[in-house]
Amino acid sequence: MRFFLYGTYIPANQLVAVARAAEACGFHGITIPDHVVYPHDTATAYPYAPDPETGRTPWDETCDWPDPMVSAGAMLAATERLTILTGIFVLPMRDPLLVAKAASTVAALSPGRFILGAGAGWLREEFEILGFDFDTRGPRSDEAIGALRALWTGERVSHRGRDVTMRPAPPMPIPIYVGGDARPALRRAALLADGILPPLNSQRRTAEHLETIAGLRAEHGRTGPFDYVAAAAGVGTPDGIAEIGALGVESVHVDPFALYVRRYGGLTLDERRAALERYAGEVIAPLAGA
């Protein structure tokens, strides 16, 4: 089982130290969240809110949102094996050319250790502030994934009516994982991506997702590996991880900070290290020795 550490709520000045600690504790990777700006007044409900009736986010305006590409470069440079997964980089509120350039540079600096986790986004007001249309974000996400794949070849490609080349090309294909669990996200992941990073779900819901994705991939003749990074109930014990693994899942997305410290923000670096070490001792190590 590959363990990805949930990277939301980690302040920018703790990222590198947490990345080093996560690698030392046996984590496969760490995810990096994404907001460019966070509007103070929003009418958009958070689709994964702990309380769906309020739609409120579990964080407040004091939460850090470090730039994912800059953060990835810093954490990759400070570690030797850790994989960085942007989770989730909001693709349709950026120019695909700039995304392709940043991602290919990160991948060239640390071959095989960077995954672009990309999603359509949910916060309408953020799109409006940045000058991108919110209602067309789905189709534009699909188009952007195709553009990224083409640009990363390093060959001459046609983009917006002009022939362009982007270098450096990544030394190996950059995996793209899609974020979300709505039907459009499942379809996007199945048909265009190499994996998916869904929100927290029950094991029953996880099994349903796997069945849907497998059906779509078979229907469209897609073969090859596909990684479902499960954020499912039960990730706090070896038995729970084993149950998730029995579904065919090979990667899990876990948050030891919420599991042990039981709060999202305001943790000291020592508290984070202690939570990582406890999770490694209670969950990762027993499974490694099984």
From TrEMBL:
Cited Pfam families: Bac_luciferase
Molecular function GO labels: oxidoreductase activity, acting on paired donors, with incorporation or reduction of molecular oxygen
Domain Luciferase-like: 11-232
Alphabetical list of InterPro entries matching this protein: F420-G6PD/mer (IPR050564), Lucif-like_OxRdtase_Rv2161c (IPR019921), Luciferase-like_dom (IPR011251), Luciferase-like_sf (IPR036661)
Positions of transmembrane segments: none
PANTHER family in the cross-refs: CONSERVED HYPOTHETICAL ALANINE AND PROLINE-RICH PROTEIN (PTHR43244:SF2), PTHR43244
Protein name, UniProt field: Luciferase-like domain-containing protein
Organism this protein belongs to: Capillimicrobium parvum
